Amino acid sequence: MEPSTWSGSLISSPERGGTQGPAPYFRRDFEVGDGLRRATLHVSALGIVEPYLNGARIGDEVLAPGWTSYRHRVGVREYDVTASVLAGANAIGAIVGEGWASGRLGWEGHREYWTDRPALFLQLTLVFDDRVETIATDSSFRVGEGAVLSGSLYDGEVYDARKEPAGWSTADFDDSSWRDAAVFDWPLAALTVDAAPPIRRTDERAPSSIVKQADGRYLVDFGQNFAGWVRITVNGQRGETVTLRHAETLTPAGTLEPATNRTAEATDRYTLRGEGPETWEPSFTFHGFRYVEIDGWPGELSPEQVTGVVVHTEMRRTGWFECSDPLVSRLHENALWSMRSNFVGVPSDCPQRDERLGWTGDLNAFAPTATLLYDVREVLGSWLADVAAEQQEKGYVPWAVPDVLPTPSAPTAIWSDVVISLPWALYQEHGDPAILERSYDSMTTFMRQVEGQLDGDSLWSSGFQFGDWLDPDAPYDEPSAGKTDRHLVASAYLCRTTRELADSARILGRTDDAAHFDQLADRVRAAFRREYLSESGRIVNETVTAYALAICFDLLDADQRRKSGDRLAQLVAQARFRISTGFAGTPYVTQALASTGHVDEAYLLLLQKESPSFLYPVTMGATTIWERWDSILPDGTLNESGMTSLNHYALGAVTSWLYEAVAGIRRLAPGYSRVRIGPQPGGGISWANAAHETAHGRIEVAWRIDGEAVSLDLALPHGVEAEVVLPLHPEGMIDVVAGGMHTWTYTVPGLGSDLERTLDTPLAQVAENRTLWYSVTAALERHFPGMALDPTQPGIVEMSIAMLLGHIPNVPDGVEDELRTLLSGRR
Ligand code: BGC
Questions:
Q1: Is 265 annotated in the active site?
Q2: How far is the CA of 631 from the centre of ligand 1 (A)?
Q3: 405 CA → ligand 1 middle, Å
Q4: Facing residues of 705 across strands?
Q5: Does the pLDDT of residue 20 top 90, yes or no?
Q6: Which of 260, 356, 362, 415 for a ligand 1 pocket mutation test, highest count of atoms within 8 Å of Cβ?
Q7: Ligand 1 within 6 A of CB of 493
Q8: Hey, is 513 helix, strand or coil?
Q9: Ligand 1, atom 11: closest residue by C-alpha
Q10: Where is pLDDT greater, at 5 or 796?
């Protein structure tokens, strides 16, 4: 429906209200004559709206209409309500909570970014045999109050069931004590039916445990961190209040630990009507949590009385992955759950604390993974429309969209350049140039701005940058001060985005722009090389992130690439395969290693369990990706940095490597018309299965190693061509196949039967197996700090571990046994 066809206006309470206080209830009676053929309801609000018709809730959308840049775009939902409209007397109404439009947003306690009160829009179109009648919100609606005493996204909902006006949305209701609604001034042109898909209840979880604590409160564990709320069924006295406090984790003592919510109260309160069992769930809030502590429960709490309700934007699942290492499979699940938890309308950083903002950098880092897990075209298409609208209004790309930040955002890598790399990632996934077309103005406007900011050497060397945000070696209070020079990071990302933009221009047939941005891409690449790279391939700022970016963004020639790859592998090993990268580098390290011949090191990094590492949180029981790898310390206490969200998808970006390298599904052309199937087994993983729903259909890969036997199964949709690089094949066989089912089985002589190694094996032979070498040297260093073994050093290579230990006085008990076990290859 075109905006010009909207009738009526938005309406609100006549006076300010409904923020931090009771949510307004709106209603109106209407008569329906004979001959009704169709009734269509359009619903929208500044706030969160629950529409009702003749006493029944319309639709099952929650948190509607979601969060958009309301000045520019407010979502409208359409319902066919023909079956609910009665001949004769009817009533229509809605409850509207403060939501994002007037509720608290951000960590500084501000509210009312868009309005000072919730406002409603309804339009009911009644099509009769001979005429059309329209009922739309205007001052003929009445407004009152009911059971929703407050509803805050961060703080929770307070609901007093005694105050619910019985039958308020039916025609029998007497609203004489209510007031006339006021017309609320808001441009109807902002109403759009093209906003993001609805947010819904997508899953339910039963408690995995319920513990009654010494003080009588119940602690319920849902076994999974997620976004949503708890539904209760309670039986008790009128006026009794049940309090539900939500948190992601527990203290080491096993009590609720709400600190990761920061100032968000995340507390719901329900006061009972007291007329038999009552079932309730909140409508005007959501929480990010795994645990809920319940106070004031009448009687004994049983599991069927509490249900975890998982809530997020409706999206089609497109990616599945599993492998023989359960920790890696869980890492994948954790990324999936963090994505689900952070796609509640707007792609957000986290779902629990006083933030939950549409941080551009978090999404930009995670986007390639997001496109593998779900079809995000619609939800991110809507968000990109908001980004473009805000960019146009403000003249810059806000770091968080919708923008509620206290200061203007300077152009930065990873955050602001989301306007280029996100459409590019979506285009790669779906192969649809219209995605690029829609964002093209955003892309070029941003790039011309950065171009104007380059120094005389064509480097992006001035202005604020987030750098390698959350590098674990950065000071806790300065997450942008990582080891890698922020302007190196910015210039490296600029090489990537200029290339993406030049390619986008070419795809869209904008030849002049393509030529201009090609030239710019060449210029900034040459500048990066001149400033940061030695001729032989060493980077002046020797960090894992710097090498990973140079390798993955194609900033090196072939010789330099080899040298950089080797140097990267050394640095990763020096860090003992713990993570030493932040938002900028983490998505690329495994890919940079594996693509330069260091598959073993890539797996050692992937499989490291000591903090900070990909698997450390998994070993600590994480069910989502954490903001910091060490958000929870090994002793179970929270890291004190204050940035310890346990549900932040950004660093889950490594997940794309699980699909592309472990399972081996790699796109060779946008939209997957051509693919390379090339699993790169390693790390002792003996099988992996993955599936991905592409624009052409479902691709499925399953490989398995069993002794010397290797098998690969591939299901390929018709119309797709695959180059199949057979994993570990002795002759390096590559096959080319068309759509259909394919199987390869072959024998790799010697596979799995590694040389027998003992305490008497010369070190040079131990070093032949890199995984073994690193685990043995790590163990030695742990027991004998400072011991650094170089397997190429004459005099060392011929030695065995037994000989080495012979030179050390007082070798502690157990060391020999530990080394013997490692050498034998038994895990
Ligand atoms: C958010 C991040 C975000 C960053 C940028 C944090 O508070 O949680 O993920 O990108 O701020 O300033």
A1: no
A2: 14
A3: 11
A4: 710
A5: no
A6: 362
A7: no
A8: helix
A9: 359
A10: 5
How do residues 476-506 score in pLDDT, each as one tens digit?
Answer: 999 999 999 999 999 999 999 999 999 999 9
285 within 8 A of 261, measured Cβ to Cβ: no
What 3 state SS string does 18-46 have?
CCCCCCEEEEEEEEECCCEEEEEEEEEEE
Is the distance from the beta carbon of residue 361 to the nearest atom of ligand 1 less than 6 Å? Answer: yes
User: Around 741, how many Cα atoms within 13 Å sit in the side-chain half-sphere?
Assistant: 1
- Take atom 2 of ligand 1 and give the residue whose Cα is closest: 349
Question: Which residue is associated with the tokens 């509490």?
Answer: 306
CA distance 183 to 12: 6
DSSP at 650: G
pLDDT bracket for residue 808 (50, 70, 90):
confident
Q: Among this protein's residues, is 355 annotated catalytic?
A: yes
What is the tens place of the pLDDT at every residue in 725-780?
999 999 999 999 999 999 999 999 988 766 678 888 888 888 877 778 888 888 88
Q: Stretch 570-595: mean pLDDT, rounded?
A: 95
What is the torsional sign of CA 496, 499, 505, 509? Answer: negative
For residue 495, the model assigns a pLDDT of: 98
Instruction: Output the six-digit token pair for 87.
Output: 């001949």
Query: What tokens were used for 365?
Result: 């880092």
DSSP reduced 3-state for 107: coil
Quick one: which of 763, 774, 765 has its CA closest to 800?
763
What mean pLDDT do residues 20-42 have?
96
Distance CA 341, CA 818 (A): 41
Structural element, H or E, at residue 249: strand 249-250
